[in-house]
Amino acid sequence: MACVYIPVQNSEEEVRVALDQLPRDATDILDILKAEQAPLDLWLIIAREYFKQGKNEQFRQILEEGSSPEIDEYYADVRYERIAILNALGAYYSYLGKIETKQREKEEHFIMATQYYNKASRIDMHEPSTWVGKGQLLLAKGDVEQAFAAFKIVLDGDRDNIPALLGQACVQFSRGRFVDSLELYKLDPENVEALVALGILDLHRNDAADTRKGMEKMQRAFEIYPYCATSLNYLANHFFFTGQHFLVEQLTETALAVTNHGPTKSHSYYNLARSYHSKGDYEKAGLYYMASVKEINKPQEFVLPYYGLGQVQLKLGDFRSSLSNFEKVLEVYPENCETLKTLGHIYVQLGQTEKALESLKKSIKSESRDAQAFLDLGELLISTDAGAALDAFKTARSLLKQGHEEVPVELLNNIGVLHFERGEFELAEKAFKEALGNDILLKFIDSEAQHPTDKAHHDPIKGAVHTAMDDSASVEKYKDMQLFHRLEEDGVAVELPWNKISALFNLGRLLEQLHKTEMASILYRLILFKYPEYVDAYLRLAAIAKARNNVQLSIQLVVISSSIPIRDALKVDDKCPNALLMLGDLELKNDDWVKAKDTFRAAKDATDGKDSYATLCLGNWNYFAAVRSEKRAPKLEATHLEKAKELYTKVLLQHNANLYAANGAGVVLAEKGQFDVSKDLFTQVQEAASGSVFVQMPDVWINLAHVHFAQGNFALAVKMYQNCLRKFYYNTDNQVLLYLARTHYEAEQWEECKKTLLRAIHLAPSNYTLRFDAGVALQKFSASTLQKTKRTVAEVRSTVVELKNAVRLFSQLSAASNLQFHGFDEKKIETHVGYCKHLLEAAKVHCEAAEREDQQNKQRIELNRQVNMAEEIRRKAEEQRKVQLERRKQEDELKQVMQREEHLERIKEQWKSSTPGSKRKDRLQTEDEDGGNEETAEGEDHEEMEDEDASMTYRESYDQIHDHDDQVDDNPQDLLAAAGLEDSDAEDDTLAPSSITNRRRRQLSESDDDDDEHLQRQPESSPAGENSVDMQESDGD
Questions:
Q1: Sign of the CA dihedral 883, 888, 893, 895?
Q2: For residues 557 and 12, what is the distance between their CA atoms, to the nearest angstrom?
Q3: Distance between first and last Cα of the chain
């Protein structure tokens, strides 16, 4: 036990101080040192011991007190110890500045170190240790050249000063001059520190030859001095990677025994912890990692033990402690990919999904070529964002292929499943086939595409598969394993690696979705052939049989699967809960209520009541028990409905997103008459179920349609039923068609009701209920038609036909051999038949009345048609007369204009030919004398010509109009005659007007001839010198 003795002042006694038992409060020691005026070297020894123990605050407190002005004044003659204290403080602040990450605090530490070194220089400016300290400070600040100058000052006075030489070697190393640095270290071939430093230089070159040289130097240093802790740690690190854990433990224990230096001990504890960690002894590894962490003050000094401790705590399930240690690692290396991935995993375990996503995205950003980071991101996103998860998985697959690494089967299977959920079946099939690889499994899958007549049928695998698929008539084929036995007998090795089972099973599910159930059943049987305890394959075979309405075979398959022990899966018994639940559902479908209830309870007990699906099935059982038609007791019904609601609510409390429980709760509310609440609930379930391949819930569509029907919204109900038929049943489900027909019936849409029932009968010809409903619909349709106030003969005749069809349907049902099995009462059927016959008798009377009324209507319509035709002919004749009159008027006006122009031209020619030049002069003189009279005469002559032209125009227009009227009067009779509607009495009436018109036309033509002759004679009889007035009068006559 190391001790120091402080002499008591003015006495021979001493105060003994154990260095390993120094008080936590340094004030007690300081009081003793001050009171006894202890030598400064004791102050330095006690401060250094505090530093070794990691008590840096006490170390600083003692040295600062030892360098205070009072101490300097008291110990003015003691120079070396005062310098040593100041240099120690300078080295301490230099170290703090070197490890500090914040720039401001770093500069403050460097300023303090500079102040202490300057204070030491003022005591003795030639002290070598002060210059070495200054050089180390400058080197830490990055001022390499000034650091080199400081070390050179020391070496100029003492060439063998080891600290200065080591400092210059560091300077050369920082400059990149490794050869010069090595030369400085090689000055003393037996110097252990130099050998260790040279070995570290070689080891950090990351070259095999240099690594070998570095370990040789470490071994040489160990041979010279076997208690050098640094060399022991590097040797232990080397033997750890060679797997020699015994030597690791020996070397690290020796290093721990010979050193008190915190960082060195931390390395030793770390090596020892790694050794136990690699051997799987996590308890001891955690203890030594913790000891390594305690020897350092900050993660920046040595971060590896924090990483190892976090790994061990993660393995032991202490997620929060592990998170704390990895976050400290992240403070030092904020972009370390492995740390970020580990943090993401821890956040997932703690339920902090957002932080997990953030960490994994940072890891991908820092290392975009890390396939594992994308895998982890995809696993995290698969439950929240399937599209992003698929992209992450695809990126991981691409990176692995680019790196020529094998793509894991699990990754390809996940890609296939995500494509499957998105409805991208071709891509899903491609991914599953890639996961299965190019082996015998693909031959089974691809054999379906080959026809047995192809050349490929010579392959025994494909031939056996086609034989098994052709044997589709046998219901026992789902349990038949002879296919694979025959292949093995033919020398074909049927192998199925365990890691490909999931991919093969998922491929079978995909084939089921593509309606290739035969090939899917072969794949399920292949799984069962190699792994008979794979219960899910039995359940899928049972589901295929159930889909084909083969309930008995489905029950047999489920019973086989439920009798197989599932190791480590159940704690109560060896029953499979999934198989029991499916068995209960089949028993319920088979109308075996008591067994179904017992089976559901057994499944619930098998999982200690934790299986929500078992609880849901019990809720379904109570609901069906409440609405059973043959035993409908009000009290019992209310009890079962309340129990069903309680079970559905329990499931929703455990899993608030359970769509089936929400749908069941909505059904119970609808049965209680709370239609608005149930409709909202059904709508939410419908929206949540949309967009997923695996969630097929036609029931919620039907339930929503039922609610609309109950509220009287028949149009919406019809639309919902039709959408459900089209979306889920390809318009081939007779039960939904029955719901649709009932809605049409209540909406009094008889024709649509009849068509819907006929479709359902076509799909299920043996369903007598559909036939009965069709007869009732035809009966109701006929009765409603006969009750109409206005009906046509066609409607009455159609009613008669429909009534006869209804009588035929009811008669067929009456003749059925097993009436009670079909649920019909013979008296009730006879009542329907009698009513239909009564309607037939009434229909005859209605038919006769309708025929008479129809005949009258036809005659009335024919008469109206003839009258309308005559009116139309008259209207067209009138329009034609008006058109001809307008055309005649335009022609007459044109003719008159032309006649005036011709008349004017004749007058001009007469004037030119009958007036000589000599008489013109006499007449001009006479006109000069009687100028006023002539002007008056000319005016009168002009007016008389205008009056005469107007009278002639009026007379010609009048004759043309009357002539045209006579012609138009004849046209309607001609048009009627052309239409076959001429009147014999009208022929005599039309003869007289026709002759009168002809005579009038002859008179007008003769008058026109006389006028022309008169005009031609007039210029010859008129003298050339006569006044123009006589000419006008002659024309007028």
A1: positive
A2: 101
A3: 176
E strand or H helix at 899, and its extent?
Answer: helix 826-914
**Which of 326, 323, 353 minimizes the C-alpha distance to 338?**
326
| Spatial distance between the Cα atoms of 483 and 444, rounded to a whole number of angstroms | 11
- Beta strands (DSSP E) in 131-247 are none
Structure tokens at 629: 């038609």
What's the Cα-to-Cα distance from 702 to each of 8, 576, 721, 740, 864, rounded to whole Å? 102, 32, 6, 10, 54
Are the C-beta atoms of 296 and 261 separated by less than 8 Å?
A: no
**Pairwise CA distance, residues 1007 & 1013, whole Å:** 10
How do residues 196-212 score in pLDDT, each as one tens digit? Answer: 888 888 887 778 888 88
Structure tokens at 960: 């043309």
In this structure, are residues 949 and 941 in contact, taking their beta carbons and an 8 Å threshold? no
574 — phi, psi (to 5°)? -100, 25
Q: Phi/psi of residue 14, each to 5°?
A: -135, 150
3-state secondary structure (DSSP) of residue 27: helix
Classify residue 24 by its DSSP letter.
S
What is the rounded CA–CA span in Å between residue 261 and residue 585?
A: 73
Reported residue count of the chain is: 1037
Q: Whole-angstrom Cα distance, residue 407 to residue 401?
A: 7
**Distance from C-alpha of 199 to C-alpha of 214, rounded to nearest angstrom:** 4
Here the tokens at position 550 are 């083969």
| Alpha carbons 262 and 254: distance in angstroms, whole number | 15
Rounded Cα distance between 778 and 832, Å, is 11
Other CB atoms within 10 A of residue 1033 CB = 12
Dihedral of CA atoms 127, 130, 135, 137 in degrees, nearest 10, equals -170
User: Could you give the CA distance from residue 41 to residue 26 in angstroms, rounded to a whole number?
Assistant: 17
Radius of gyration of the chain (CA): 59
The beta strand positions in 125-174, using DSSP E, are none
The mean pLDDT of 744-766, rounded to a whole number, is 91
Look at residue 815 and give its three-state secondary structure: coil
Exposure string over 451-470, b if 16+ CB within 10 A, otherwise e: eeeeebbeeebbbbbbebbe
- Token reading at 241: 């990677």
- Do 197 and 166 meet the contact criterion of CB atoms below 8 Å apart? yes
> Rounded distance, CA 275 to CA 269, Å?
10
Query: Angle, nearest 10°, between helix axes 425-436 and 409-421?
Result: 170
| pLDDT band at residue 438 under the 50/70/90 scheme | low
pLDDT digits (tens, 9 = 90+) for 548-600: 777 676 666 666 555 443 333 233 334 677 778 888 887 877 777 788 888 88
- Cα 519 off chain centre by: 30
Q: How far is CA 565 from CA 533, 572, 601, in A?
A: 8, 12, 19
In whole angstroms, how far apart are CA 524 and each of 431, 444, 448, 496, 770?
19, 12, 15, 12, 38
